[in-house]
Amino acid sequence: MTWYAALVLLVGLERLAELVVSAGNARWSLAHGGREYARGQLPPMIALHVALLIGCLLEAWLAGAFLPWLGYPMLALLIVANALRWWCIGTLGRQWSVRVIVIPGAGAVRGGPYRWLRHPNYLAVALDGIALPLVYAGWITAVAFTILNAVLLWGFRIPAEERALAQLHAHAVPDGA
Fold first, then answer.
1. What is the spatial distance between Cα 80 and Cα 85, in angstroms, rounded to a whole number?
2. pTM, rounded to two decimals
């Protein structure tokens, strides 16, 4: 269990690194005319991700067991999910943030994983939320996170992003005008 607690701590530190990158990018975006939308969504999302880490540790401590047939593939999936997450962050560059900030005049990013998926970062988050708990057979945490994450993403976050982008494009000045 000690190695699993270290893994969860490492993932937590990675999330803190994301928040540092996000804060810098948000400051840059706002300084370059970015508009923020749906600010109230951030606290529940942060709470859910903190609960994921706590749930992983609690479930592992209370009833968890390392099942090699499940744990090793989930560890590999966790690595893939985090590689995808950082690919998204690198592709979006300064436009990436945990906040919904849209910069007028900044076109939609179509490179990297965005060539194939509209929201690859959210796929990475979903895979991460399944894989991390299941590394140590945390079925309850994996299912609970997956359901709550789906509600937040599909019920609130993705529609808010789509509305923000639609508003931005509705007010854009046509080329040549």
1. 9
2. 0.88
Q: Which residues contact 70 (CB under 8 A, 6 or more apart)?
A: 134, 137
Domains of the chain: 2-170 (1.20.120.1630)
pLDDT of residue 63: 81
Distance CA(28)–CA(42), nearest Å, equals 18
Residue 35: in which H helix or E strand, if any? Answer: strand 35-37
Q: What's the gap between Cα 84 and its chain centre?
A: 10
Long-range contacts of 149-158 (CB under 8 A, 24+ apart): 149/48, 149/125, 150/126, 152/41, 152/44, 152/45, 152/48, 153/119, 153/122, 153/125, 153/126, 156/38, 156/41, 157/38, 157/41, 157/45, 157/100, 157/122, 158/119, 158/122
Contact 153, 118 (CB under 8 A): no
